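Q: My labmate handed me this sequence with no annotations at all. I'd like to see what the chain might look like in three dimensions before we decide whether it's worth expressing. Could you predict it?
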Amino acid sequence: MTVTLASFKVAKPEFVKAGDAQITAALAFAENETSDTAFGDSRDFAVILKTADILAASPAGRDARLMLKETGAATTYGVELARMQSAAALSASRFGSSEIAGDE
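A: Here is what I predict for the chain of 104 residues:
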């Protein structure tokens, strides 16, 4: 299933005012950058988090920004995405996959 503009707005209503064009562009980038293999059934959620991270990192997203040295994430959404990537990478290493979450 692909994340749509409408499904993103339902999942993250704080971005409704960001504008459809900006959300659509961020969604397209996130869809392209998010691995099918690494995230499996959680891929749509990873795309939503990546899109939110992109939007929050934009000039208008200052309220969702933070800087954590331990994660390297710059937004609250990036922190959650980093956790998902770590879990996916750990799971992949247990099953002998060379796929790294977030890489395709």
